[in-house]
Amino acid sequence: MIHPSYVEMIEKINKGQDQEEAPLVTSRYSIVLATSKRARQLIDGAEPKVAAVDRNGKERKPLSIAVDELYEGKVNILPREEEDDDAIE
What we know:
This protein is an all-alpha fold. It has a single domain, classed as Alpha-Beta Complex (Eukaryotic RPB6 RNA polymerase subunit). The protein contains 3 helices and no strands. Helix 2 crosses helix 3.
């Protein structure tokens, strides 16, 4: 089983949005794009905002780190109109 699920990720990322605003994430595709972009940033040398080593002392993969960062709210997805080359901060 994959944890967190897509549904949990979408709910968590969109939490706190005003009702009038369009949700930041509307599909699984949006989650995949955001996590892959953040994983590429980590590969290119960005500093992880969550633990990069698991409980057994083994280094975690960039995609796993990116998923946890998004789920825990350590990085944000910017709305499309504010988006630039670094849409994930």
